[in-house]
Amino acid sequence: MIDRFQLLYDLGGLQDFLAQNPNLTPEQIDKLLHTEGVDKGLLSSFGKLTENQFLRLFGDEEVNNYSFSQNPNLTPMQIDFLYLEKLNRKDLAANPKLTDEQFRRFWGNVDKDYLAQNPHLTPEQIDLLYNTEGVDKDDLATYSKLTDKQFTRFWTNGYVDNDSLAQNPHLTPEQIDLLFDTKGVNKEHLAEDAKLTDEQFMLLFNDEKVENLHLALNPSINPTPLQPFASGIFNWKW
Q1: In terms of residue numbers, what domain contains 46?
Q2: d(Cα 8, Cα 47) in Å, to the nearest integer?
Q3: pLDDT tens figures, 70-102
Q4: How many structural domains is the chain composed of?
């Protein structure tokens, strides 16, 4: 398997982009913490931090504690702590680790577009937001883990930009290929956000029109084995 992190790290000049990747291992985070010039605030904003790393960064004078509210890897207890500290609740509303109770609490306290940016909404929460007047549907298309029916609804909705779907990190390999071949779709969105196979990664890595910095930001830099998908482009198992 390709060591994507090391390949991009060795290119030089991409360390701060790697520091924004939310799926690094603790060892990769430590490597960046000890790399001269890396912005530690990026690691507090995006890193999958161990308890020791979280506390180390939270107590670091060089790190703005507001940056933690953007971190998609916070635990529910950390979300409650930051909520009580009133550290940027808008970003916390988009956190993928929200519990049902926290979702209801945020529903009455923040702009619902921030909830629409949450990547781990339930199908019922997605439908609720979709049918709520004024909510940006492009946000739902970009971030949500859509059901088959919901994906098709967005795909056929003339008011939703396909580039929004191309930024969705929950696409199947077949959907990635479909968007890759769709005229007008920005491939750099796929390079940065899609869960790429090795073949798709190398195809984009060698594409002269795609800057490698987008691959450096991609959470699938450390890919997990693909789960079996149901047949058909728009069907998948939960």
Answers
A1: 1-73
A2: 17
A3: 898 988 888 888 888 888 898 899 998 999 999
A4: 1
